[in-house]
Amino acid sequence: MISLEPPKVSVLIPCYNAEKYIGETLESVFRQSWQEIEVIVVDDGSKDRSADVVRSFARPNLRLIQQENRGSTVARNICRSKASGDFVQYLDADDLLEPNKIALQMERLKDGARCVASAEWGRFTDNPRETRFAEESVWRDLSPIDWLAESGFKMMFPALWLIPMEIVRSVGPWNENLSLCDDMEYFTRVLLASDGIRFCPGARCHYRSGIEGSLSGAKSPQALRSQFNVLELCEGYLRTAEESERIRRCLSLAWQQFAHFAYPYDRVISTHALERAHALHPVRIRPGGGLRFRVLSRMIGWRASRVLQVRSGRP
Length: 315
Known about the structure:
The protein is an alpha/beta fold. The chain is built from twelve helices and eight strands.
């Protein structure tokens, strides 16, 4: 028997010390024009009032689970295990969805195809009204391997996607051994398990930047090792799906960008990343930076320039 009920979307939010942001995030969820949603928040041992803020939104379709601090991947897996929706919207506790984001994506997925919906995104620091949305080459319908090759693993954060639960179940849990860039590893698996990515014009999400101590900016040995492991795993996934010159080039660029990011915080891991890059493809890139950095790197080399850049207080 075919159900006449609209499909339910599970919005899954890990939360750690997000008292300043989680309220705004939940408001953006409960303003969704798509009303058939459940919201599951896992408070991962927060030391602030995050759980109290979540409780203030008390309603039948909101569930708060509290646990000792075990990391965001564990929290997402708890969310995932409790979800009962037909589709999944992962969301970080400081990011925002525009009111019609889920509805527009549901419209594109209504034919039942095993596809994943993507969205427009922009970055903001304090005021979401100041978010700037810059069109990207992947803002169109693409096959999974085309999307990954075109994007170069840039910005695969949770808010972008709406995923059929069938795919969420098929790819298994988040990798709990990872911290930094765990979303890249997970969503690479999700996209490759799909029949394609359907881009949804007008479906928008806001990525919050500039949070002090955020994991995305971490350069500890543990965080850098996690990102190295993510790239290693993703290289395996992509080369299994397609062994080609364009995939090796894409991966070489990703390894070089990571090597530049890691230096001088971990010089050994940066060197290993460059070795991986050069074994894959002859393409070469220089670290990004302003005019002064580019001129200096041509004079004294990019490594010495990165050391001076970091000493001056720039990451």
